[in-house]
Amino acid sequence: RALSAAIPTGLERGEFYLDYQPLTSLQDGSLLGVEALVRWRHPQLGVLRPDRFIGLAEETGLIVPLGGWVLAEACREAVGWSAATAQPPYVSVNLAVRQVRRPDLVQEVRALLRRTGLPPDRLQLEITESTMMSGAEEPIRTLRALADLGVRIAIDDFGTGYSNLAYLRDLPVTELKVAGEFVRGLRAPEAADERILASLVSLAHALNLTVTAEGVETGGQAERLRAIGCDAAQGWHFGRPAPAVNILARVKGGA
Ligand code: G
Ligand code: G
Ligand code: MN
Ligand code: NA
User: Fold this and answer.
1) What local confidence, expressed as pLDDT, does residue 252 receive?
2) Per-residue b or e along 99-127, where b marks 16 or more CB atoms closer than 10 Å to that residue's CB
3) Which end of the chain is more exposed for a tag (fewer CB within 10 A), N or C?
4) Which residues of the chain have pLDDT under 70?
Protein backbone atom coordinates (compact mmCIF):
# COMPACT_ATOMS: atom_id res chain seq x y z
CA ARG A 1 0.00 0.00 0.00
CA ALA A 2 1.30 3.40 -0.91
CA LEU A 3 2.78 5.39 1.95
CA SER A 4 0.80 8.45 0.93
CA ALA A 5 -2.48 6.61 1.62
CA ALA A 6 -1.46 6.35 5.28
CA ILE A 7 -1.01 10.10 5.73
CA PRO A 8 -4.68 10.92 6.54
CA THR A 9 -4.94 8.16 9.14
CA GLY A 10 -1.52 9.17 10.47
CA LEU A 11 -2.90 12.67 11.00
CA GLU A 12 -6.00 11.32 12.72
CA ARG A 13 -3.91 9.14 15.03
CA GLY A 14 -1.42 11.85 15.96
CA GLU A 15 1.58 10.13 14.36
CA PHE A 16 3.17 13.38 13.15
CA TYR A 17 5.25 15.68 15.35
CA LEU A 18 7.60 18.62 14.99
CA ASP A 19 11.28 18.96 15.78
CA TYR A 20 12.83 22.43 15.79
CA GLN A 21 16.26 23.61 14.70
CA PRO A 22 17.75 26.81 16.17
CA LEU A 23 18.31 29.95 14.07
CA THR A 24 21.13 31.66 15.94
CA SER A 25 22.34 35.26 15.75
CA LEU A 26 25.91 35.48 14.45
CA GLN A 27 26.28 38.86 16.16
CA ASP A 28 25.51 37.88 19.77
CA GLY A 29 24.74 34.16 19.76
CA SER A 30 21.13 34.66 20.83
CA LEU A 31 18.31 32.40 19.66
CA LEU A 32 16.36 34.42 17.06
CA GLY A 33 14.04 31.72 15.84
CA VAL A 34 13.53 28.01 15.23
CA GLU A 35 12.59 26.13 12.07
CA ALA A 36 9.81 23.56 12.41
CA LEU A 37 10.67 20.24 10.73
CA VAL A 38 7.95 17.61 10.51
CA ARG A 39 8.51 13.95 11.42
CA TRP A 40 6.23 10.93 11.14
CA ARG A 41 6.26 8.27 13.83
CA HIS A 42 4.99 5.54 11.53
CA PRO A 43 3.63 2.49 13.39
CA GLN A 44 5.47 -0.02 11.16
CA LEU A 45 8.36 1.97 9.64
CA GLY A 46 9.52 3.94 12.66
CA VAL A 47 10.35 7.64 12.57
CA LEU A 48 10.33 8.97 9.00
CA ARG A 49 12.09 12.17 7.98
CA PRO A 50 10.29 14.59 5.66
CA ASP A 51 12.26 13.61 2.55
CA ARG A 52 10.42 10.25 2.75
CA PHE A 53 6.90 11.70 2.60
CA ILE A 54 6.76 15.44 1.78
CA GLY A 55 7.24 14.77 -1.94
CA LEU A 56 4.43 12.17 -1.90
CA ALA A 57 2.21 14.54 0.04
CA GLU A 58 2.82 17.27 -2.53
CA GLU A 59 2.07 14.96 -5.48
CA THR A 60 -1.19 13.75 -3.97
CA GLY A 61 -2.38 17.07 -2.56
CA LEU A 62 -2.21 15.65 0.97
CA ILE A 63 0.30 18.41 1.72
CA VAL A 64 -2.72 20.67 2.26
CA PRO A 65 -4.05 18.87 5.36
CA LEU A 66 -0.54 17.87 6.49
CA GLY A 67 0.86 21.38 6.00
CA GLY A 68 -2.18 22.81 7.75
CA TRP A 69 -1.51 20.58 10.73
CA VAL A 70 2.16 21.67 10.77
CA LEU A 71 1.17 25.35 10.74
CA ALA A 72 -1.36 24.93 13.53
CA GLU A 73 0.94 22.80 15.69
CA ALA A 74 3.89 25.19 15.24
CA CYS A 75 1.76 28.20 16.27
CA ARG A 76 0.26 26.30 19.19
CA GLU A 77 3.71 25.35 20.52
CA ALA A 78 5.27 28.76 19.83
CA VAL A 79 2.70 30.59 21.97
CA GLY A 80 3.96 28.65 24.97
CA TRP A 81 7.51 29.96 24.50
CA SER A 82 6.55 33.52 25.44
CA ALA A 83 6.96 32.79 29.12
CA ALA A 84 10.14 30.77 28.66
CA THR A 85 12.52 33.53 27.53
CA ALA A 86 12.67 37.33 27.60
CA GLN A 87 12.95 37.42 23.80
CA PRO A 88 10.90 34.46 22.58
CA PRO A 89 12.05 32.97 19.26
CA TYR A 90 9.90 33.14 16.13
CA VAL A 91 8.82 29.87 14.54
CA SER A 92 9.64 29.31 10.88
CA VAL A 93 7.35 26.98 8.91
CA ASN A 94 8.01 25.54 5.44
CA LEU A 95 5.21 26.03 2.92
CA ALA A 96 4.85 23.88 -0.20
CA VAL A 97 3.86 25.52 -3.46
CA ARG A 98 0.41 23.88 -3.34
CA GLN A 99 -0.29 25.54 -0.01
CA VAL A 100 0.68 28.98 -1.31
CA ARG A 101 -1.55 28.47 -4.36
CA ARG A 102 -4.64 27.97 -2.24
CA PRO A 103 -6.70 31.15 -2.04
CA ASP A 104 -7.80 30.40 1.53
CA LEU A 105 -4.26 30.18 2.95
CA VAL A 106 -4.43 33.80 4.11
CA GLN A 107 -7.72 33.20 5.90
CA GLU A 108 -6.28 30.03 7.48
CA VAL A 109 -3.22 31.87 8.84
CA ARG A 110 -5.31 34.82 10.05
CA ALA A 111 -7.68 32.51 11.92
CA LEU A 112 -4.76 30.57 13.38
CA LEU A 113 -3.07 33.69 14.72
CA ARG A 114 -6.35 34.87 16.22
CA ARG A 115 -7.14 31.48 17.78
CA THR A 116 -3.68 30.90 19.28
CA GLY A 117 -2.90 34.53 20.13
CA LEU A 118 0.57 34.21 18.58
CA PRO A 119 1.88 37.68 17.62
CA PRO A 120 2.19 37.73 13.80
CA ASP A 121 5.90 38.61 13.86
CA ARG A 122 6.57 35.40 15.80
CA LEU A 123 5.59 33.40 12.69
CA GLN A 124 7.85 33.10 9.63
CA LEU A 125 6.77 31.33 6.46
CA GLU A 126 9.49 29.75 4.29
CA ILE A 127 8.81 29.50 0.60
CA THR A 128 11.19 28.31 -2.11
CA GLU A 129 12.27 30.15 -5.20
CA SER A 130 10.30 27.68 -7.33
CA THR A 131 7.12 28.77 -5.54
CA MET A 132 7.81 32.28 -6.76
CA MET A 133 8.74 31.06 -10.22
CA SER A 134 5.59 29.00 -10.70
CA GLY A 135 4.43 31.80 -12.93
CA ALA A 136 1.08 32.61 -11.45
CA GLU A 137 -0.01 35.95 -10.05
CA GLU A 138 -1.82 34.15 -7.27
CA PRO A 139 1.13 33.28 -5.02
CA ILE A 140 2.27 36.90 -5.24
CA ARG A 141 -1.11 38.22 -4.15
CA THR A 142 -1.22 35.63 -1.37
CA LEU A 143 2.25 36.55 -0.09
CA ARG A 144 1.36 40.25 -0.04
CA ALA A 145 -1.73 39.49 2.00
CA LEU A 146 0.28 37.31 4.39
CA ALA A 147 2.89 40.05 4.83
CA ASP A 148 0.05 42.50 5.52
CA LEU A 149 -0.91 40.28 8.46
CA GLY A 150 2.58 40.99 9.83
CA VAL A 151 4.12 37.55 9.41
CA ARG A 152 7.72 37.19 8.21
CA ILE A 153 8.42 35.75 4.75
CA ALA A 154 11.68 33.93 4.04
CA ILE A 155 13.01 32.55 0.76
CA ASP A 156 14.31 29.03 1.54
CA ASP A 157 17.31 27.46 -0.21
CA PHE A 158 18.10 30.80 -1.80
CA GLY A 159 20.62 30.64 -4.62
CA THR A 160 19.91 27.09 -5.78
CA GLY A 161 16.78 27.65 -7.88
CA TYR A 162 16.10 30.04 -10.70
CA SER A 163 16.67 33.28 -8.86
CA ASN A 164 14.59 35.95 -10.48
CA LEU A 165 15.73 38.97 -8.55
CA ALA A 166 12.61 40.89 -9.58
CA TYR A 167 10.64 39.09 -6.88
CA LEU A 168 12.96 40.50 -4.25
CA ARG A 169 11.94 43.92 -5.47
CA ASP A 170 8.24 43.17 -5.84
CA LEU A 171 7.56 40.96 -2.84
CA PRO A 172 7.38 41.63 0.87
CA VAL A 173 10.21 39.22 1.66
CA THR A 174 11.98 39.77 5.01
CA GLU A 175 14.74 37.15 4.91
CA LEU A 176 16.92 35.06 2.62
CA LYS A 177 17.95 31.60 3.79
CA VAL A 178 21.08 30.81 1.83
CA ALA A 179 21.49 27.16 0.89
CA GLY A 180 24.09 25.09 2.75
CA GLU A 181 25.73 24.32 -0.56
CA PHE A 182 27.52 27.70 -0.45
CA VAL A 183 28.48 27.31 3.21
CA ARG A 184 30.19 23.99 2.50
CA GLY A 185 32.68 25.80 0.26
CA LEU A 186 33.74 28.18 3.05
CA ARG A 187 37.10 26.55 3.66
CA ALA A 188 39.71 28.91 2.31
CA PRO A 189 39.18 32.66 2.71
CA GLU A 190 38.47 34.29 -0.66
CA ALA A 191 37.13 31.04 -2.12
CA ALA A 192 34.42 31.54 -4.77
CA ASP A 193 31.69 30.51 -2.32
CA GLU A 194 32.85 33.13 0.18
CA ARG A 195 32.68 35.83 -2.48
CA ILE A 196 29.21 34.65 -3.51
CA LEU A 197 28.03 34.70 0.11
CA ALA A 198 29.53 38.16 0.74
CA SER A 199 27.76 39.46 -2.38
CA LEU A 200 24.45 37.91 -1.33
CA VAL A 201 24.75 39.55 2.08
CA SER A 202 25.43 42.95 0.46
CA LEU A 203 22.49 42.51 -1.90
CA ALA A 204 20.19 41.43 0.92
CA HIS A 205 21.19 44.26 3.24
CA ALA A 206 20.78 46.81 0.45
CA LEU A 207 17.20 45.54 0.13
CA ASN A 208 16.64 45.58 3.90
CA LEU A 209 16.56 41.78 4.15
CA THR A 210 18.29 39.63 6.72
CA VAL A 211 20.35 36.58 5.77
CA THR A 212 20.42 33.21 7.49
CA ALA A 213 23.06 30.73 6.33
CA GLU A 214 21.98 27.08 6.36
CA GLY A 215 24.05 23.95 6.90
CA VAL A 216 26.68 25.56 9.17
CA GLU A 217 28.60 22.59 10.54
CA THR A 218 31.84 24.06 11.95
CA GLY A 219 33.00 26.97 14.09
CA GLY A 220 35.29 28.02 11.25
CA GLN A 221 32.33 28.41 8.88
CA ALA A 222 30.43 30.37 11.52
CA GLU A 223 33.38 32.72 11.98
CA ARG A 224 33.73 33.36 8.22
CA LEU A 225 29.98 34.05 7.99
CA ARG A 226 30.12 36.46 10.91
CA ALA A 227 33.06 38.27 9.29
CA ILE A 228 31.10 38.58 6.03
CA GLY A 229 28.22 40.21 7.92
CA CYS A 230 25.74 37.34 7.68
CA ASP A 231 23.00 37.86 10.28
CA ALA A 232 22.14 34.37 11.45
CA ALA A 233 23.05 30.72 11.05
CA GLN A 234 21.40 27.31 11.14
CA GLY A 235 23.17 23.98 11.21
CA TRP A 236 24.70 21.23 13.27
CA HIS A 237 27.33 23.55 14.75
CA PHE A 238 24.49 25.46 16.48
CA GLY A 239 22.15 22.56 17.09
CA ARG A 240 20.43 19.63 15.44
CA PRO A 241 16.67 19.46 15.06
CA ALA A 242 15.18 18.52 18.46
CA PRO A 243 11.96 18.83 20.48
CA ALA A 244 11.15 22.42 21.46
CA VAL A 245 11.69 21.79 25.18
CA ASN A 246 15.31 20.78 24.56
CA ILE A 247 16.05 23.89 22.54
CA LEU A 248 14.39 26.25 25.01
CA ALA A 249 16.14 24.54 27.95
CA ARG A 250 19.47 25.28 26.30
CA VAL A 251 18.55 28.97 25.90
CA LYS A 252 17.55 29.32 29.52
CA GLY A 253 20.61 27.41 30.67
CA GLY A 254 22.96 29.53 28.56
CA ALA A 255 21.34 32.92 29.23
O1 G B 1 14.07 17.51 8.68
P2 G B 1 15.00 17.49 7.53
O3 G B 1 16.24 18.14 7.95
O4 G B 1 15.25 16.13 6.98
O5 G B 1 14.20 18.31 6.37
C6 G B 1 14.23 17.90 5.04
C7 G B 1 13.43 18.79 4.14
O8 G B 1 12.04 18.69 4.41
C9 G B 1 13.79 20.26 4.26
O10 G B 1 14.12 20.71 2.96
C11 G B 1 12.54 20.93 4.72
O12 G B 1 12.36 22.17 4.03
C13 G B 1 11.44 19.95 4.38
N14 G B 1 10.36 20.05 5.36
C15 G B 1 10.46 19.78 6.68
N16 G B 1 9.28 20.01 7.31
C17 G B 1 8.42 20.46 6.33
C18 G B 1 7.05 20.86 6.34
O19 G B 1 6.37 20.91 7.35
N20 G B 1 6.51 21.22 5.14
C21 G B 1 7.24 21.21 3.98
N22 G B 1 6.62 21.59 2.85
N23 G B 1 8.53 20.84 3.93
C24 G B 1 9.11 20.46 5.10
O1 G C 1 13.98 23.46 4.87
P2 G C 1 15.35 22.92 4.72
O3 G C 1 15.60 22.16 3.50
O4 G C 1 16.36 24.01 4.83
O5 G C 1 15.59 21.98 5.98
C6 G C 1 16.81 21.86 6.61
C7 G C 1 17.40 20.50 6.29
O8 G C 1 18.81 20.53 6.40
C9 G C 1 16.94 19.44 7.23
O10 G C 1 16.88 18.24 6.55
C11 G C 1 18.07 19.40 8.27
O12 G C 1 18.13 18.21 9.00
C13 G C 1 19.26 19.58 7.39
N14 G C 1 20.38 20.18 8.08
C15 G C 1 20.27 21.05 9.10
N16 G C 1 21.49 21.44 9.52
C17 G C 1 22.38 20.79 8.74
C18 G C 1 23.81 20.79 8.69
O19 G C 1 24.51 21.49 9.43
N20 G C 1 24.39 20.01 7.73
C21 G C 1 23.66 19.25 6.88
N22 G C 1 24.33 18.49 5.99
N23 G C 1 22.30 19.21 6.90
C24 G C 1 21.68 19.98 7.81
MN1 MN D 1 13.40 25.34 5.36
NA1 NA E 1 16.54 25.30 3.27
Assistant:
1) 66
2) bbebeebbebbbebbeebebebebbbbbb
3) N
4) 1, 134-136, 252-255
Distance from residue 125's CA to the centre of ligand 3 (Å) = 9
Q: Given the CA of residue 70, which atom of ligand 1 is nearest to it? A: 19
Site to probe by mutation for ligand 1, drawn from 7, 54, 181 as the one with most ligand atoms within 8 Å of Cβ, is 54
Instruction: Give domain limits for the chain.
Output: 3-249
DSSP single-letter state for residue 242: B
Q: Which architecture does CATH list for 3-249?
A: Alpha-Beta Barrel (3.20)
Q: Kindly report the protein residue whose alpha carbon is nearest to atom 3 of ligand 1.
A: 37
Q: Whose CA is nearest to atom 19 of ligand 1?
A: 38
Of all protein residues, the one whose alpha carbon is nearest to atom 5 of ligand 1 is: 50
ipTM of the complex: 0.95
State pLDDT tens for residues 230-241: 999 999 999 999
Q: What is the pLDDT of residue 212?
A: 98
Strand runs labelled E in 95-244 = 123-128, 152-158, 175-178, 210-213, 232-233
